[in-house]
Amino acid sequence: INDSYDYVIVGGGTAGLTVGDRLSESGKYSVLVIEYGYLEPDGQRPGTLYNITSAPVSGLNNKTFPVSIGCVVGGSSAVNGMVFQRGNAKDYDVWGELGGGNPRVSWSWVDMLMYFKKSIQMTAPKPETAAFDLRYDTRYWGRNFTTNHTIFATFGNVINPKTHPFYEAAKRLPGMKVSPDAGSGQLGLQYYQTSTSPYTGARSYSRTGHWDGLNRANYHLLAATRVSKVIFDRDRAAGVQIYPRGEKARNTVIRAKKEVILAAGAIHTPQILQLSGIGPADLLKRAGVPVKVDLPGVGYNFQDHTFIPAVAFSWSTSPPIPAHLNTSVVDDKLGRTSLGLSVELPVVSPRSFKRIASQYESQDPAAYLPKGTDKTVVRGYRKQQQIYAREMRAREFSFLRATLSGEPSFVPIVIHPVSRGTVLIDPAAGSDIEVEPIVDYRAASNPTDVDVAVEEIKFLRRLMTSGDLARYNATELAPGPGYESDEALAAWVRANTIPSVYHPVGTAAKMPREWGGVVAEDLLVYGVRGLSVVDASIMPTIVAGTTSMTVYAVAEKAADLIRLRAGRDI
Ligand SMILES: Cc1cc2nc3c(=O)[nH]c(=O)nc-3n(C[C@H](O)[C@H](O)[C@H](O)COP(=O)(O)OP(=O)(O)OC[C@H]3O[C@@H](n4cnc5c(N)ncnc54)[C@H](O)[C@@H]3O)c2cc1C
């Protein structure tokens, strides 16, 4: 390990290793990735997570919840569920809208699609799945198999035939579409991939795609090492202060000649920024951290998907499976391909979507944000509110995601929540990086999210009791009898919602500074030079799918932006 590098990357997770690989591949720049987790000899150890408990969530009956994030080389991509989805095309167009109009950089769907194709190689489904209406289109994917140094999206070899009756029934619900490809950015029914190597059947993640086997003299990884803060020469990020895991007294500094890149994820990136003096000034003062830049958005705009673990039914007789699909279901190394739904609000709730949109639109934007939220952050939220209200009435923005497992039980996800939480250092802990930040999901703090969840339950009831599936006389087990009124359902939602699908995003948002943004369109942090953020924190709004695929694409795009400015003084 050297004393200085061109690029110092904080966090060897999903984004960190992707950027590290790209910046080092030409051989021109030296790159160091610093990761708190261990480089596990077996490549992964599921369950290697930070030990964080959330603040009590007042909208969910004051319960606390575990905050799961990977703590290992590979970060959350080493421990995640490997469900590999993108958001809606509209999600990225909204990112463009929330960019404030920088003519040189665009984050809209067409631009991001280029990076989805660069970052992920898709392997087509096997002939065994041909009997199903599995739609895919290679135009949405990278198809470069000349190297193992990539991330794979792979279909399983088999499909559970029990999904078929659900597919047929859901397809016939009014307004429902079938997506041409799970990566097309379009809504509807879709069979989707997992992040699995087609060759080995093992997890494909940032370590296998962007570290293992590269052996470049200019690409170093320092594992089991904590970055405690960014250090500055006047207004330029000059490097980071680090210490070996568990040995806080052994501080040293590694210098960055070109840029410090924060890729510590949506929980720890805002923590490091705040402990480096970049954040809401009043919070930093209370914690005794000298203020470098008063940037009120750091740690605000926190979003995650919320879900209900079971909206459950039982059959009196299960739907029959057509003989041609009823082949023996043998799980092989690639596992099964799953079937998902991505549904817009007018289809989830033809009766109530206009009311929900109008009520949401007319809210005072500060009403459900944390007390004392800075006016710039409120302004940014107002923008998001206008966009979300518009999209609640439109057909390109999903509000429900669920997997159709083949069993009469569902896990509905509020995929575009409007509540916003915070990730803030604990002022009582001062500048101690070992004390985890206070993670306040604030899920369901905005009643609109509860309204949407109630409509999701009614949608699933319609799927099970009308149309194709009506004849199987499903009995509802959860919520169950007695939950008819919206009020009763809302109370059930608050009692049963989990505030995180492990998709934390948004805490260092890419938005204009006057809208509470933390990074500009080029991902450079406002108010200093030579410091950028490249991870899930930069998403201004959460996407309608699992988040890792979007993080890979963000990292690929960021690497191009960073290389572009490498010759300039920033
Ligand atoms: C349990 C779980 C299940 C999930 N399931 C799915 C799924 O099925 N599909 C999907 O697409 N997504 C899933 N996700 C989410 C997805 O994996 C994440 O959104 C994505 O990986 C985040 O990438 P990132 O680069 O922002 O952060 P991470 O990959 O979390 O990387 C951040 C890294 O920074 C390191 N770090 C933090 N602080 C410091 C410090 N001070 N010093 C040094 N290093 C530090 C961390 O140890 C970590 O390795 C899941 C996540 C979890 C945790």
CATH architecture: 3-Layer(bba) Sandwich
Structure class: alpha/beta
Largest sheet: 7 strands, mixed
Shape: globular
Short description:
This protein has 570 residues and is α/β, with parallel strands linked by helices. Helix content is 25%, strand content 19%. It has 13 helices and 25 strands.
Helix and strand arrangement:
Blueprint (H helix, E strand, L loop, with lengths): L3 E7 L3 H11 L6 E4 L17 E2 L12 E2 L15 E2 L4 H9 L11 H11 E4 L27 E4 L3 E2 L3 H9 L16 E7 L11 H5 L8 E4 L2 E9 L2 E9 L7 E11 L2 H11 L2 E2 L1 H7 L5 E2 L11 E2 L3 E4 L21 E9 H4 L4 H9 L13 H18 L5 E7 L4 E2 L2 E2 L7 E3 L13 E3 L6 H19 L9 E4 L7 H11 L34 E3 L14 H17 L6
Parallel strand pairs: 1-2, 1-13, 2-10, 6-7, 8-18, 13-25, 14-15
Antiparallel strand pairs: 3-4, 5-9, 9-18, 11-12, 12-13, 16-21, 17-20, 17-24, 18-19, 19-21, 22-23
Helix pairs in contact: 1-13, 3-13, 9-10, 11-12
The chain binds flavin-adenine dinucleotide (FAD).
Protein model, in words:
Keywords: FAD, Flavoprotein, Oxidoreductase, Signal. Its cofactor is FAD. FAD binds at residues 72, 80-83, 227. This is GMC oxidoreductase. With 570 residues, the protein is an alpha/beta fold. It has 13 helices and 25 strands. It has helices spanning 14-24, 89-97, 109-119, 163-171, 206-210, 265-275, 281-287, 345-348, 353-361, 375-392, 447-465, 486-496, 548-564; strands spanning 4-10, 31-34, 52-53, 66-67, 83-84, 120-123, 151-154, 158-159, 188-194, 219-222, 225-233, 236-244, 252-262, 278-279, 293-294, 306-307, 311-314, 336-344, 398-404, 409-410, 413-414, 422-424, 438-440, 475-478, 531-533. The strands form seven sheets. Strands 1, 2, 10, 11, 12, 13 and 25 form a seven-stranded mixed beta sheet that branches. Strands 5, 8, 9, 16, 18, 19 and 21 form a seven-stranded mixed beta sheet that branches. Strands 20-17-24 form a three-stranded antiparallel beta sheet, covered by helices on one side. Helix 1 links the parallel strand 1 and strand 2 (31-34). Helix 3 packs across helix 13 (548-564). The model has no long low-confidence stretch (mean pLDDT 95). Flavin-adenine dinucleotide is lined by residues 10-16, 34-37, 68-71, 75-77, 79-84, 226-227, 263-266, 268, 272, 502-503, 535-536, 546-549, 551.
